[in-house]
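Entry type: protein chain
Record version: 2
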Amino acid sequence: MAGIYIHIPYCKQKCHYCNFYSFASSQFREQFVDALLNELSHRKNYLENAKVNTIYFGGGTPSMLSTDEINKIVKRIFTLFQVEDGAELTLEANPDDLNEAYLADLKNYTSINRLSIGIQSFFPQDLQYLNRVHDVRQARSSIELAVGNGFTNLTIDLIYGIPTLTIDNWKQNLEIFFSYQLPHLSSYSLTVEPKTALNTMIKKGEMQNVKEQQSIEHFKILLNETGRNAYVNYEISNFAREGYYSKHNSIYWLGGHYLGLGPSAHSFNGKSRQWNVSNMRKYIGEETVENIIEEKEILTPGQRFNEYVMTSLRTSWGCDSEHIQNVFGYKAMRHMEESIKEFIRDRKVKKEGSKYYLTGEGKLFADGIASALFL
């Protein structure tokens, strides 16, 4: 199980809450694509001939690329790597980019077979708070056009916990999603990250701050409504019909290997992690590909254990004590089993056989529970 992630850092404008490496420009576009193709050629051995199950264009706003540019990148990947038949190829897209012509070209002239559309909300006051480019009409139109052009593997993003988002409007956001009969939803709590415009404006009193209780209420509604509509909460922030789980993100959660390309992109081969420079000029300007790697770390057994606990607990597959014993040893398994007992008593975790799962209540405290189990 292996994947390729391609980071496209371009945006039309920067969302207030975003802390990913991106910028409101398309400067150096031609040089960037050339550098990306060059990096692909030099990293062709990173996955050690493993079959590639997924290719994911993330960002930033990958839909700012032309279909010719996307096709050029995809063709290079298919030339250099063993790509599995029927592999999942995802493009993240903003609603304002998805017009009829662009979608038709995506469908007919590229191998993209999955779209992830950044809707975030169907209400204008929320979009304004987040500083999104698109409007409500474009949000709905992008979904309808994507479906009309034959994209059946389709997911949208919705954000909850926005100060302007009322309980009733949050329920309406979900009802609109259900009305389209889409197979997948990614839904995240708004988080105020350091060094973002949102954090600065909240500190200056220019924007309302996020309220924890509001986010909790929204999350409980999310769990209830998606469950009632037969969506599986297979990872805390992801909900899908059977057969439509994100293969790419599942690689991250299940400990698979992945190659990250582009500025700021991360790679993992099971033993070490590395990430590229978060600087476009350096990315396109370095003479050797090795010089774009900002840092590399060899993971200790303890770090690998902690990562397994953190990711597995977030999923419907659970954290498996037998797997821990087989991979990390008896002491690590006993440590986890002893440390998790208090959360079972508090009904935040349930045990079935050798596996441990977060309950609905436990999902509210996922990070804290995982960190309490760390070595």
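Comment: The longest strand covers residues 83-93.
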